[in-house]
């Protein structure tokens, strides 16, 4: 089969690799019907995730059709249409029993496209198939549900729920890429007083407006701290969500938040950021971090199926899998191409 293979920082290729097979009796092999590219894949290609080694098939998001299952699989059968989650869960270890699937001790967690071959391929082996795939409701399109493989639950869990967004809050989202937009969409479910989007790209600020931001700020031209304090009686944001993954955006969130407020880090960081405790120690600020656990995926599937949220709007570009290299070029140049999410199909 063909797959998108990592060959070290800055190097990738769409090339022939062996077809996946059942390795453990809890596995399934899934034909990939739709797949996308994540900002984390770009971090990998920059060399930010050294655990990803030469020869690894990238990708951790897919919608597909089950073609084979191991002898112990009970809830999934050939022919089923499933969402392949970015997080794999053994279902039995301490963390899985707590719903912290991202920290799985039994061989799961974020492994697809990281520690084992991933989803940017014609077929993928999915470990722990019973607890790591989700049945797709009737009437929900591949593109809609594909957005729940990662960005939907990541924005909701690591941004909205970790940030404890409440009715009446002023919420600032730093970074209006796919994760930031997912945070904005999820925050709307909790009736904040206002949502402020901060980004250096005007095209992404325009997208933020479409997803529900009330105010947009480009910090290359405006002082975000001054503007946010001006709308909050000089206090700052109740919740600041970091959705970029660079030191400057994290440090900006800590400057934007009010005393007693929340900073929720959702970005993937590859280098250290400065924690200004000399300013924060007295402010009673809570900072959360997190890898998505996908415990919210069943809830979000219900919201998609009932049309309470519209995830298809994330998709801006479509490609055939044979054009994976071009798709990466478009996605990585989002400031110029205005790409949010790209979808590839066979």
Automatic annotation (TrEMBL):
Stretches assigned to the Alcohol dehydrogenase-like N-terminal domain? 25-130
Which residues belong to any copy of the Alcohol dehydrogenase-like C-terminal domain? 178-305
Task: Give this protein's Gene Ontology molecular function annotations.
Answer: oxidoreductase activity; zinc ion binding
Q: Which keywords appear in this protein's UniProt record, sorted alphabetically? A: Metal-binding, Oxidoreductase, Zinc
What cofactor does this one take?
A: Zn(2+)
PROSITE patterns annotated for this entry?
A: ADH_ZINC
Family stated for the protein in its record? Belongs to the zinc-containing alcohol dehydrogenase family.
- Spell out the protein name for this chain: Alcohol dehydrogenase
Protein source organism? Knoellia locipacati
């Amino acid at each position: 089969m063909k797959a998108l293979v990592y060959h070290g920082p800055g190097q990738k290729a769409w090339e022939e690799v062996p077809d996946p097979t059942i390795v453990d009796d809890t596995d399934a092999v899934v034909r990939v019907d739709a797949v996308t590219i994540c900002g984390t894949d770009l971090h990998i290609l920059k060399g930010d995730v050294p655990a990803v080694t030469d020869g690894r098939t990238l990708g951790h998001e897919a919608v597909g059709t089950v073609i084979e299952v191991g002898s112990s699989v009970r809830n999934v059968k050939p022919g089923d249409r499933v969402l392949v989650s970015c997080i794999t869960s053994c279902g039995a270890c301490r963390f899985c029993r707590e719903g912290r699937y991202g920290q799985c001790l039994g061989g799961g967690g974020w492994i697809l496209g990281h520690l084992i071959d991933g989803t940017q391929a014609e077929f993928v082996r999915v470990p722990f198939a019973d607890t790591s795939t989700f049945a797709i409701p009737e009437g929900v399109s591949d593109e809609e549900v594909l957005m729940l493989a990662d960005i939907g639950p990541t924005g909701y869990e690591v941004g909205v729920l970790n940030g404890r967004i409440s009715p009446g809050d002023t919420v600032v989202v730093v970074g209006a890429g796919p994760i930031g937009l997912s945070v904005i969409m999820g925050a709307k479910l909790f009736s904040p007083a206002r949502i402020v989007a901060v980004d250096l790209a005007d095209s992404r600020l325009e997208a933020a407006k479409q997803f529900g931001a009330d105010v947009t700020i480009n910090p290359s031209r405006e002082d975000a701290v001054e503007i946010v304090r001006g709308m909050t009686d000089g206090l700052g944001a109740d919740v600041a969500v970091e959705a970029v993954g660079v030191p400057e955006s994290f440090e900006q969130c800590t400057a934007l938040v009010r005393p007693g407020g929340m900073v929720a880090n959702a970005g993937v960081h590859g280098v250290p950021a400065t924690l200004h405790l000399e300013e924060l120690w007295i402010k009673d600020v809570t900072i959360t971090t997190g890898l998505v656990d996908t415990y919210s995926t069943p809830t979000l599937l219900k919201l998609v199926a009932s049309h309470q949220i519209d995830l298809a709007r994330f998709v801006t570009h479509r490609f055939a899998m044979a054009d994976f290299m071009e798709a990466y070029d478009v996605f990585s140049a989002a400031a110029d191409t205005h790409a949010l999410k790209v979808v590839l199909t066979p």
